[in-house]
UniProtKB/TrEMBL annotation:
Protein name: Thioredoxin
Family the UniProt entry places it in: Belongs to the thioredoxin family.
Keywords of the record: Disulfide bond
Organism (species): Ruminococcoides intestinihominis
Pfam families assigned to the protein according to its UniProt record, in alphabetical order: Thioredoxin (PF00085)
PROSITE patterns: THIOREDOXIN_2
The UniProt record lists the keyword Disulfide bond: yes
InterPro entries: Thioredoxin (IPR005746), Thioredoxin-like_sf (IPR036249), Thioredoxin_domain (IPR013766)
Length: 106
């Protein structure tokens, strides 16, 4: 699944009923740039839906999720936050959290 860029305070992500990840980032953030290849790999190889949200372009959505630092990964299902990870994390860390949340919902 490709990574989907959120544009213009889009609320489309709340229509997604599956478990997905929202990557809050900023273009000026070096840790965000470090995390980017990992996020793209997780989305592509694991077929996980990932939305990218630039905090400077999507201030309303950033406020709604109470984002205080970037990068922050928010795990969401049915429009509700289940968990978040702040900072740079490995692919294994991200997948462990994702599959743990997914399996607990089954």
């Amino acid at each position: 699944m490709p990574v989907i860029e959120i544009r213009g305070n889009s609320k489309e992500i709340f229509n997604n009923k599956d478990l997905y990840i929202v990557d809050f980032y900023a273009s000026w953030c070096n840790p965000c740039k470090i995390l980017l290849p990992t996020i793209e790999e997780v989305g592509r190889k694991e077929n996980i839906t990932i939305y990218k949200c630039n905090i400077d372009d999507n201030t309303e959505l950033t406020k709604n999720f109470h984002i205080m630092s970037v990068p922050t990964l928010v795990f969401v299902k049915d429009g509700k936050e289940l968990k978040r990870l702040s900072g740079v994390h490995s692919k294994d860390d991200i997948l462990t959290e994702y599959y743990s949340l997914r399996d607990s919902e089954l």
